[in-house]
């Protein structure tokens, strides 16, 4: 079926999984990803195995899908790209804009000299997986050469002459028989809550923590790079919140934060962890025994803190109402982790507008393909663009979308 093409928008685990499934059926896939690196949010998550025993966090599945996608001959990957326009006649015709790719993936050997030598903070970006080739990218905003041509050290010193700082953005046009929307989610911005995020260095999000553990293998306080003695996790930040009109549960935060807590206790046994929660959502039959074990190690408090103050630049005072005495209590922590929730993808209005579909009242894309005519016209969706789901559920949703697309394309599947 080499004459059939599918355009996939979004290179997170949903887009990668669907791409691999379709490519295995001999469909040609064009996978466009707006950032420099594939893998979406989940490529930044650390494996949470405890004493080398898998706890089914799903992080390794993302790496595996990424590896298969980048090496598949039927998948063409376009990083740094976004759809500018798309219309359907007999097939879909899309025009794309691709940011300049300053590092040539065919020449780059991932030696890292560009990052080591760059004098500007954040100008050389680093991916989370060596399966992203290249593993580095140049930031359009931070690079001094791209600002005012005042520095070209990375280009001048690259031993492979892989860096070109003068290349320009690219326009592509693509014809496709079907389109899959896999643009994922936007993490809730905790600046809207009274927890001092962005003001106090030692208030971080669950995503920050995941990335810190993935990059360094351990947990440090951002204020002084020391191991925190007392950590608080605050659940449901941006989820199940009527004031924000976010009534949904983000489904993944409890299990993710509890697994991370256990991992921290394994890596830093001296660290004490307190878990503030509304009620613990543990999905799946395997999670219950894990949760029972976890409660022996983690202090669980059924309350959601009202606010947080910084005491001396190093410590954080957390206020909450005690469930039993109904008194306001205060406790001091070294690090507070906000378990931010899943909210609709920031580009979904634009993409929906281009494709002539409508997100539902919550802002996620409608998934009922029987009732929504758009979805029987060759437009499909997979993953968290449809609503909160785990990595495993995202992969299942991508598999299901791939099979629907194959049927739509008239493929004979044995
Ligand atoms: C704090 C936190 C912790 C979590 N921990 C776990 C865990 O431990 N285990 C678990 O199973 N799940 C976890 N999850 C859920 C997990 O992150 C998701 O299941 C997974 O990331 C969904 O993948 P996706 O491809 O649907 O979306 P994303 O990961 O959001 O990927 C979407 C991709 O689309 C790209 N994109 C967006 N817009 C465009 C556009 N206009 N054009 C082109 N590309 C675009 C994005 O750049 C991104 O690469 C966690 C979630 C959160 C918030």
Your description of this structure?
The chain is of the alpha/beta class and 414 residues long. It is 26% helix and 23% strand. It contains 11 helices and 20 strands. The relative contact order is 0.16.
How does the SSE layout of this entry go?
Blueprint: E1 5-9, H1 13-24, E2 28-32, H2 59-70, E3 75-78, E4 81-88, E5 92-98, H3 113-117, E6 124-126, E7 136-138, H4 144-148, H5 153-157, E8 170-176, E9 178-181, E10 185-187, E11 203-205, H6 206-216, E12 230-237, H7 253-267, E13 272-276, H8 287-297, E14 299-301, E15 307-310, E16 316-321, E17 328-333, E18 335-340, E19 342-344, H9 348-355, H10 373-376, E20 379-381, H11 391-408
Parallel strand pairs: 1-2, 1-9, 2-3, 9-20, 11-18, 12-13, 12-18, 13-14
Antiparallel strand pairs: 4-5, 5-8, 6-7, 10-19, 15-16, 16-17
Helix pairs in contact: 1-2, 1-11, 7-8
The structure holds flavin-adenine dinucleotide.
Which stretches are low in confidence, meaning pLDDT under 50 for 5 or more residues running? none
Q: Report the mean per-residue pLDDT as an integer.
A: 93
Shape: globular
CATH superfamily of the largest domain: FAD/NAD(P)-binding domain
Order of the strands making up the biggest sheet: 3-2-1-9-20
Counted beta strands: 20
CATH class of the largest domain: Alpha Beta
What is the multimeric organization of the chains shown? single chain
Q: Domains counted in the coordinates: how many?
A: 2
Distance linking N and C termini: 14 Å
List ligands, each type once: flavin-adenine dinucleotide
Instruction: Classify the fold: give the CATH topology of the largest domain.
Output: FAD/NAD(P)-binding domain
Strand content: 15-25%
Q: What is the level-2 CATH architecture name of the largest domain?
A: 3-Layer(bba) Sandwich
Major sheet details: 5 strands, parallel
Helix content: 25-40%
What's the alpha carbon Rg, rounded to whole Å? 23 Å
What is the tally of helical segments?
11
Q: What structural class should be given to the helix and strand makeup?
A: alpha/beta
């Amino acid at each position: 079926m080499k004459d059939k093409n599918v355009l996939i928008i979004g290179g997170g685990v949903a887009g990668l999984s669907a791409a691999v499934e379709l490519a295995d059926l001999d469909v040609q896939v064009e996978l466009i990803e707006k950032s420099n690196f594939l893998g979406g949010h989940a490529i930044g998550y650390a494996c949470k195995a405890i004493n080398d025993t898998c706890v089914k966090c799903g992080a390794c599945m993302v790496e595996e899908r990424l590896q298969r996608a980048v090496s598949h001959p039927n998948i063409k990957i376009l990083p740094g790209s976004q759809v500018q326009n798309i219309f359907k006649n007999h097939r879909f015709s899309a025009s794309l804009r691709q940011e300049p790719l300053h590092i040539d993936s065919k020449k780059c050997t991932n030696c890292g000299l560009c990052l080591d030598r760059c004098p500007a903070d954040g100008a050389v970006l680093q991916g989370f997986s060596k399966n992203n080739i290249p593993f580095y990218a140049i930031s359009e905003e931070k690079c001094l050469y791209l600002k005012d041509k005042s520095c070209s050290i990375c280009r001048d010193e690259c031993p492979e002459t892989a860096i070109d700082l003068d290349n320009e953005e690219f326009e592509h046009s693509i014809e496709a028989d079907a389109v899959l929307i896999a643009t994922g989610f936007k993490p809730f911005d905790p600046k809207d809550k009274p927890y001092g995020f962005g003001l106090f260095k030692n208030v971080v999000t669950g995503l920050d923590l995941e990335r810190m553990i993935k990059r360094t293998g351990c947990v440090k306080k951002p204020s002084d790079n020391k191991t925190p003695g007392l950590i608080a996790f605050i659940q449901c930040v941006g989820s199940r919140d009527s004031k924000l009109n976010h009534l949904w549960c983000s489904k993944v935060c409890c299990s993710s934060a509890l697994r991370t807590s256990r991992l921290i206790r394994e890596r830093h046994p001296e660290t004490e962890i307190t878990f503030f929660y509304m009620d613990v959502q543990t999905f799946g039959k395997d999670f219950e025994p894990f949760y029972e074990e976890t409660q022996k190690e983690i202090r669980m408090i059924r309350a959601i803190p009202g606010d947080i103050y910084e005491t001396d630049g190093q410590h954080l005072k957390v206020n909450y109402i005690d469930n039993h005495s109904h008194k306001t209590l205060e406790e001091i922590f070294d690090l507070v982790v906000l378990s931010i929730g899943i909210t609709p993808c920031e580009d979904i209005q634009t993409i929906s507008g281009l494709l002539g579909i409508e997100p539902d009242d919550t802002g996620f894309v409608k998934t009922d393909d029987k009732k929504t005519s758009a979805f029987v016209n060759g437009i499909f969706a997979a993953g968290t663009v449809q609503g909160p789901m785990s990595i495993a559920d995202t992969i299942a949703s991508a598999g299901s979308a791939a099979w629907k697309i194959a049927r739509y394309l008239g493929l004979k599947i044995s």
